[in-house]
Amino acid sequence: MKRRRKAPSIDAMMRFFLQYYNIPTKQDIDKIIKRIDRLEALIRKDAAARYGKSRAAGRKAFPSMKHHPKMPGKTTATQQLITIIKSVPEGVDIPTLKKKSGFEDKKVRNIVFRLCRRGIIKRVRRGVYALPSS
What's the sign of the alpha-carbon dihedral 111, 113, 117, 122? Predict the structure, then answer.
């Protein structure tokens, strides 16, 4: 009588395919992220030494809208949308923003995306945006 082999486990098969096809695991990605963080810290340290601490440390990824110079007599599309959002404290949806501002859908969505990314407005729920409560 032939002896039956034990069936390979799912975990063993997954490890085999990951190794065979050179697919990185979560641990591999975590190691890479730690290395990148160390490299970024070294770059920041080098920039601080090279250009002076105030210049290197003072840069922000997304400057807030308060630091932008205002154009005299003209309000930008972004400022118009912020004003509309300020007027409704519980939040405004995209169709209302389109109707009140008169802008096209793509323009409104791009401005809202940028404002959310900068932290000037927050998403209350799907499609509804408001100013963050201070």
Answer: positive
Task: Locate the domains of the chain by residue range.
Answer: 10-57, 65-130
Domain covering 65-130 in this structure, CATH number:
1.10.10.10
Please, are residues 82 and 72 in contact by the beta-carbon 8 Å criterion? no
Return d(Cα 85, Cα 97) in angstroms, integer. Answer: 8
**Residue type for 40, please?**
E
Write out pLDDT tens, residues 92-101: 999 999 999 9
pLDDT at 56: 46
How many Cα neighbours within 13 Å face the side chain of 129? 25
Each residue's pLDDT tens digit, 3-18: 778 887 888 888 888 8
Helix (H, G, I), strand (E, B) or coil at 83: helix
Left (φ > 0), alpha (ψ -120 to 50) or beta: where does 22 sit?
Answer: left
Is the pTM higher than 0.85? The answer reads: no
Q: At what angle do helices 77-87 and 94-101 cross, to 10 degrees?
A: 120
Please determine, for residue 105, whether its predicted confidence score (pLDDT) is greater than 70.
Answer: yes
